[in-house]
Each structure stands twice: as structure tokens, then as C-alpha cells.
Amino acid sequence: METQGAVRTRGAVEAVWRIESARVIAGLARMVRDVGLAEELAQDALVAALEQWPETGVPRNPGAWLTTTAKRRAIDHFRRNENLGRKLDELGREQRVGEGVLPDFDAVLDEEHIEDDLLRLVFTACHPVLSTQARVALTLRMLGGLTTDEIARAFLVKESTIAQRIVRAKKSLADGCVPFEVPVGEERVARLSSVLEVIYLVFNEGYSATRGDDWMRPALCEDALRLGRVLAGLMPSEPEVHGLVALLEIQASRSAARTGTNGEPVLLMDQDRGRWDQLLVRRGLAALARSEELAGGAYGPYSAQAAIAACHARARTPDETDWVRIAALYEGLAQITPSPVIELNRAVAVSMASGPAAGLELVDRLLDEPALKAYHLLPSVRGDLLLKLGRPAEARAEFERAAGLTGNARERTLLLGRAASC
Question: Where is the DUF6596 domain (predicted)?
Fold first, then answer.
């Protein structure tokens, strides 16, 4: 059995790993030009820390210790590797193997390059050659510092499934000869959207869990927000990066008010706004202002959603919400990224600005949309509008249909409760 000291040390190791792993992996990846190998070497350093720190104590600079240990593992790897000469050539170090000359690891893993390395790692982990699920898993593993088990529990899938996704992702990157670099020009714009999508997907799964018994999974929200903030620091001139961060900050500010005492969902209009985190609201509004400044007042998909969230954040009570502006913002968002889901959200805003009949008219136009056939919020919204129009029997049927479509137990209970109240 582990002593209390050993347990504390293990906790310290895990905390350090969560903070430092991305930096260690990023520096190694530039050195070895193989993200998969870099992650394995960093994991070796983690194992060494778990073995040694309980006896020696946590070092004064644990991040440097991990980097140094990983570097030694890399040197050992190259010395064992029969293809050392080829690897050295790839690194531009054309030396003969027999001389035992290795890359200047201290120069490769210096602090001066760490931000560039992290940005390279972000774009590599989110490369479009990978499936969306693989990008999410690899990003959380390499940049979020999460274990395979933690990722699996967060998404309610088997650990073996996540492990296979990560292994296949590394293989795809290697087989595709994906360079460890930051893309430029038009490719950079296209690839950045993939990076932002991954962070947004992680946050959304934490904010409104699609499966399981919990309405929210706060740890995923925190991981996504941390990744977003890191990306904003690495790419300070990108408007949509700040737009995404603004959206996540404002959404996260409501977290404490989104669940009741027993974990049941509390919808936006019913939330106690005094429980909204005003620090996160201020940070979100500042990030939105920065995005607007960089884009000259124009909105991209994430900054437009952040502007919508800001309308709610600025309203001290539900009645003060500027629904006319929200409806206009959704209309603009629909032009940027046409989507039936956005149209459904616009219908809600229109119903609040112009009455439930106007909203229902827009919702009914979406009933034959293939993409919304299994989307539980369509009948949920329709049920709400029917109830406001004094048509409870129809509303009840819609709430029951919505309950049958959702995969989240908490949300199902909420919807069945609404159906019963009709």
C-alpha cells in the first residue's frame, strides 16, 4: 500500500504532467520529427518520474526534469536505432554513425522555441488527415495532458477504443508524412478552422453532454478553455481564435447556474444570474472586443456566436435580453455558415423578439430537414412554442418525442417532466 507521502507525490506528478506534457512533447517532436515517437519518449519520462519522485521528492523545476529525462531517452533511442544515420540526415546533421555524434539536444529543446513548437504540435494533432474523433483524442492526449482512461471516461467510451484511435492517429500522421510545422497562407486558414473545431467540440461535450447521466462534464470545459487560451497566446493576431475564447469564457461563466441542487438541468431563462462568474464574463467580453478590433468589426462563426452569448451576459434579467439583436446575429451567422441548427436557434430568437407564432413558422420550415431528423432540440423547441400558443396536447407529444431522441439521462428527465406538466 502506498504511503500518504507517495500518494501526494503521485498527485504532484500528475499535476505537473498536465501542465508540462505539451511543452515536453512539442520540443521532442521538433527534434525527432515524429509526433508519435515524441509522445512515447515523454511518456517514458513520466514513468521515470512516477518511479523516482516518491523516493527523491519533487524536483525544484519539475518541467525541466521531465524535459531532461525525455531528452536522455531520445539519445538512447537514437543510439539504439539502426537507422541513426538516416535520422541524423533528416535533422540536417550529416555525421557518420560510427563517430557517435548526436543532435545538439540542448539547442533543440531550448525555451526560445517552445511557443513555436507548441503551435506546430497544435496544427499537427488537429491535421485534417485525421478523423474528427482522432483529432479530439490526440489533442486531449498531447496538448491536454489527459490519460487514455481520462479521455475515455470523459466521452463515455471504452479505454481500448480511445487507445486505438490514438494509435491509428499517430500511424496516419507517420504514413502521411505530415510535417511538424505551422502551415502558411491559405492552408493556414483552412487548418486553423480544424484546430478551432476540435477545441469547440471538446467544450461542447463538456457543456452539454450528449450521453450519460450528467448534464455537464466540467473537466472537459476546463480543458477546452485552457487549450483556447493557450492558442490565443500563440496566435494573438487571429480574430477567430479570440472569438472562440470569448465564446467559451462567456459560456463557461454560466456553469454554476446550469444545474440544480440534485444535478438537474436549469435552462438559460430560469438561471440565477447572480451565480454567473463575472470574472469569466469580463474575460469573454474583452476577448470579443479584441476579436472585433482585429477583424475591423466583422464576425466569423465563433465571434458571431460570442456576440450572441455577450447579449445574454450583458442582460441583468431575462427580460432585458436584446432578442432583436440576437435574431439579427443569428441571421448573419446563417450566412457565414449555413446550418439547420443555426436556423433553429434563429427561430427561437425570433420567437422571443416577435412572438411564438413567428418562431413556430420558422421551426415548421425545418421539419423535413434530414440533418434534424434525430435532433432532439427540434421537437423540444417546437413543443415550447406550441405550449406558449396554448396548444398543450401537441406540445406534450413534441416533448415526449424529444425525450426519446436525447442520449442524456438528465435531459430526458427534464423533457418528460415538461411533457407531464402539459
Answer: 191-291
Q: Is 324 exposed, middle or buried (0-12, 13-18, 19+ CB in 10 A)?
A: middle
Residue type, 63: G
Total Cβ atoms within 10 A of residue 361: 14
Q: What is the pLDDT of residues 279-335, one digit of tens each?
A: 999 999 999 999 999 999 999 999 999 999 999 999 999 999 999 999 999 999 999
List, in sequence order, every residue forming a beta bridge with 212; answer none if it has no partner: 408
Cell numbers for 17, please give them.
Answer: 504532467
Q: Judge contact between 341 and 372, C-beta under 8 A.
A: yes
Looking at the fold, whether 243 and 287 belong to one and the same domain comes out as yes
From residue 189, alpha-carbon distances to 92, 167, 194, 227, 258 in Å are: 29, 27, 9, 18, 34
Domain boundaries, position 270 = 236-302
Is there a single domain that holds both residue 259 and residue 192? no
Q: What is the dihedral of CA 131, 135, 138, 143, to 10 degrees?
A: 170
Last residue of a domain, one of 189, 212, 230: 230
Look up residue 96 and give its three cell numbers: 557518420
| Domain end call among 178, 202, 230 | 230
Q: Are 287 and 305 in contact (CB under 8 A)?
A: no
